[in-house]
Amino acid sequence: MEDSNHEDPQHTAGEEASSAGSHRPGVRVSAAAPCGARLTLPGVMDAEGRVDESRLRMHIFKNGGVCPSERGLAWRFLFGMYPCSSTALERSLLQEQMLVRFRVMKTKWQQFLPSAVRMHLNGTDAELVAAVGYFDQRQTLAQQQTQDQSDEVRDRLAFLELQAQILFERVTFDREELREATRIIDKDVARTNRDLSYYQGEGSANLLVLRDILITYAAFHPEVGYAQGMNDLCSRFLEVLNSEVDAYWSFSCYMEKFSKDFRADGLHRKIELEAALLKELDPSLYAHLVTDSMESFTFCHRWLLLGFQREFEHSDALRLFEILSCDHLELISQQVNRARYQERLAQTCSTEDSSESELQAINTDFTFELFICAAILLENRESLLRCRDEVQLIQFTSSLQGTLELNSTLKKAERHLYNYCKRCAWDDMNVCCKTDKSKEENFLYQLRSLLVLK
Fold it and tell me: Rounded to whole angstroms, how far apart are CA atoms 379 and 174?
């Protein structure tokens, strides 16, 4: 996996505005990247702007992410805000629709719960007090810019607004649930990492934008609501996309797949999978960590929930988030199985011999983030073996915050993934290929090339 975290001088002004951490005072957070902006990744986008999704995901994994200048646009496809099959022209229309729908949604909960429109401050947090002022100025500027739109644009947006109002007309809210969600969001937004340049100075107004996104999501997804940690995840989308509207829809698409992780049963399942993977990779370390005094892997809770957001330097954490989100293991599992099937067809084994062993599929429940987690645990194996209880484990893992090096961790995780995939096929290959060593070597070569190991 190569490091693509480099600057590309060949980027457009629109792409620059969407790159990670590219906030400048006065930037309209509600603005979106130009729909006609192009990805320059080889073979990923065609002349009309359609994206080859599998190539995009493969590029992200093999190259260790995308360069910052293209991150904003790439994320809009990666997380499903834009359909990869859409053209640039179609996306310009889709963008208007998403803009209007978000405005209608936000207005609906604000009218339902007026007390939640403004963040309640006790006056002791000077930065948040200033943020409210900057936010109000930005809102006034946005209203003035709306008034400057042409009659044609206003008419088109008015029609889209009517459609959105009809769409959300029957949506109802639970007042107490929404009030409680807002109370927790206000606490968590204030705890969002303000050391980031995106939230400093006039950028502190972005904290209020983040708040509105989270309340809107909680209001229109009552089955999920709001849970602690969502502010950190949503903050990534807002920072990278630099757009209130785009951040909302991208975050919503992400949560369609991962909202279960914020439920107790979902996270418990992920921790169980991490334990099962470590048992495969290092049985003795696993045995040590499941003793009576350390009976679970809860010390990995924050890592898995937030995608190792605090364990790596910030720009690397963003890069890792997009690598984990490309679902590379799910993609290669199909390719590996096809390779194994082709190899098996090429065998001259008898029917009786081939029936002795059934092909085992790679367990796609072992997502790449679990291999990242395992790589960190195995790299710190000796320190973990010295831990005698849960408190010592939590203290040790907390000490790793901001200290890990991403590229080396990725290489180790890839190696563990490769070894795991190889073991899944090993018994079958021993049976089917014992008469022809070249077949085994050919399959393992294909497997290695799929995982991009150098």
Answer: 48
- Compute the distance between CA of residue 55 and CA of residue 43 in angstroms, rounded to an integer: 7
Mean pLDDT over the full length of the chain = 82
pLDDT digits (tens, 9 = 90+) for 55-109: 999 899 888 899 999 999 999 999 999 999 999 999 999 999 999 999 999 999 9
- Give the integer Cα–Cα distance in Å for 100 and 160: 7
Give the DSSP letter of residue 201.
G
Q: Is 49 left (phi over 0), alpha (psi -120 to 50) or beta?
A: left
Q: What angle do CA 355, 357, 360 make, to 5 degrees?
A: 130
Quick one: which of 322, 311, 300, 279 has its CA closest to 19? 322
Task: Residue 287: count other Cβ atoms within 10 Å of its Cβ.
Answer: 11
Q: Are 239 and 23 in contact (CB under 8 A)?
A: yes
The identity of residue 289, as a single letter, is L
pLDDT in tens, 315-338: 999 999 999 998 766 555 555 455
Angle at 57 between CA 55 and CA 58, to 5 degrees: 60
- 232: its two tokens: 């950190």
From the list 279, 305, 306, the residue with the least C-alpha distance to 290 is 279
Q: Which residues of 258-282 are buried (b: 16+ CB within 10 A; e: fewer)?
A: ebebbeeeebeebbebbbebbebbb
Alpha-carbon span 162 to 181, nearest angstrom: 28
DSSP secondary structure of 138-150 = HHHHHHHHHHTS-
Give the DSSP letter of residue 199. G
pTM exceeding the 0.85 threshold for the entire prediction: no
Tell me if residue 45 falls in helix, strand or coil.
strand
Q: How far apart, in whole angstroms, are the C-alpha atoms of residue 317 and residue 5?
A: 11
**312 pairs with which residues across the strands?**
404
* 225 neighbors 216 (Cβ within 8 angstroms): no
Residue 358 tokens read as 């059934």
Return all residues near 342 (Cβ < 8 A) that are at least 6 apart. none
Which distant-in-sequence residues (6+ apart) come within 8 Å of 447 by Cβ?
336, 339, 418, 421, 422, 425
